[in-house]
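re: the backbone from monday

yeah here it is again, tokenized this time
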């Protein structure tokens, strides 16, 4: 890495020599989508037994106005992906995915900051002895080209994301519906398919939240979690036993150690701490709590995405539309949102999924998307919620 992206956390075990790699085919490119939350006054919460304490939510005009604090949009930095492998050393033959950040000339200073931050976050999180961390993509090394591009090499744990899974399954559902009942010659096939999909989705969510919990336990926020930032090693629902979801895209990760919170904010985290101040989080303890709750809010939007998109035909709903529906139209009153969705036959399977266990899915969503950041559950509590344990399936 260059002096611009050199960080103190880089470990000796990371492979930083470009001669140790072989670059393969171009896979694709993408940009980062930043979705952040807001925090109006207190309403309701999640009790110790996983129940919603006050489901009768009301919202003032003041709280609705805080929606304008949200920062939603795709950033200017475009990331390219290539496959490849390690050509020498103890990890010779290991298949990898290269994530390429453009140099300053194309991506500006932000691209270098993002590359440095991602490298620093992975080096900080990965275990010193085994180079592993729970449900998080494994960084193996990286290098800088003469043009200033930053190439980060990750172990190839899959080429599909949760967003890909959602799109592919919804398109397949549309094709099956267009073929009518002849598609399912066995009357039980539909039920089996839906049950298998529910199990697959819960396992994706458990892996993603487990990775987020690991990050929080190790003093890091993700800050851009969403369906595109969850990599999957399979999207075949019959292979759910082999599914291992992993979090990727740590370019906006934030260090929440108290020593870091007491210093001047880094450029990539300034917006987060502005929102924290607007929500009344002034001390280091409050800022840390706000940051963790902000990640939980984004994870709640991920839960909503995976509860809806794979169970609806293509074009019915997408992530941004769900967010607008919940935040804008229904102002985070998910009981009202449920009534709206239930009236639309195209969303019936999604509603049934969240209705399991007397509305356990809606209950969890309402808690994770609580307008008051202080009342959102921790990641470990989310994992223990009855909707997430799989017992309802």
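seq for it, each position gets an aa:
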């Amino acid at each position: 890495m260059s002096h611009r992206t050199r960080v103190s956390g880089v470990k000796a075990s990371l492979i930083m020599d470009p001669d140790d790699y072989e670059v393969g085919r171009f896979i694709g490119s993408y940009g980062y989508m930043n979705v952040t939350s807001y925090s109006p006054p207190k309403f309701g919460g999640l009790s110790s037994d996983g129940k919603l304490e006050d489901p009768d939510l009301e919202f003032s005009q003041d709280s609705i106005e805080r929606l304008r604090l949200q920062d939603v949009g795709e950033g200017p930095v475009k990331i390219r992906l290539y496959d490849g492998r390690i050509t020498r050393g103890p990890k010779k033959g290991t298949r990898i995915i290269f994530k390429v950040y453009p140099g300053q000339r194309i991506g500006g200073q932000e691209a270098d900051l993002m590359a440095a931050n991602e490298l620093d976050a992975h080096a900080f999180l990965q275990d010193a002895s085994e180079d592993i961390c729970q449900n998080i993509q494994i960084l193996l090394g990286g290098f800088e080209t003469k043009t200033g591009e930053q190439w980060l090499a990750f172990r190839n744990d899959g080429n599909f994301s949760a967003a890909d899974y959602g799109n592919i399954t919804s398109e397949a559902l549309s094709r099956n519906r267009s073929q009518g009942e002849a598609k399912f010659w066995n009357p039980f096939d539909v039920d089996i398919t839906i049950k298998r999909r529910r199990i697959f989705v819960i396992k994706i969510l458990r892996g993603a939240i487990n990775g987020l919990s690991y990050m929080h336990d190790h003093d890091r926020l993700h800050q851009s979690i969403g369906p595109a930032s969850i990599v999957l090693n399979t999207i075949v629902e019959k292979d759910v036993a082999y599914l291992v979801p992993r979090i990727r895209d740590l370019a906006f990760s934030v260090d929440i150690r108290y020593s870091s919170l007491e210093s001047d904010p880094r450029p990539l985290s300034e917006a987060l701490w502005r929102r924290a101040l607007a929500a009344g989080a002034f001390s280091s303890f409050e800022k840390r709590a706000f940051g963790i709750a902000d990640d939980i809010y984004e994870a709640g939007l991920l839960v909503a995405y995976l509860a809806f998109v794979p169970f609806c035909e293509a074009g019915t709903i997408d992530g941004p539309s769900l967010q607008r529906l919940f935040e804008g139209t229904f102002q985070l009153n998910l009981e009202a949102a449920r009534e709206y969705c239930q009236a639309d036959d195209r969303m019936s399977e999604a509603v049934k999924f969240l209705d399991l266990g007397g509305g356990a899915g809606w209950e969890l969503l309402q808690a994770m998307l609580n307008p008051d950041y202080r009342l959102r559950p921790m990641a470990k509590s989310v994992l223990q919620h009855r909707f997430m344990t799989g017992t309802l399936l």
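The chain has two domains: 18-35+72-155, 160-389. Residues 63 and 109 are 35 Å apart (CA to CA).
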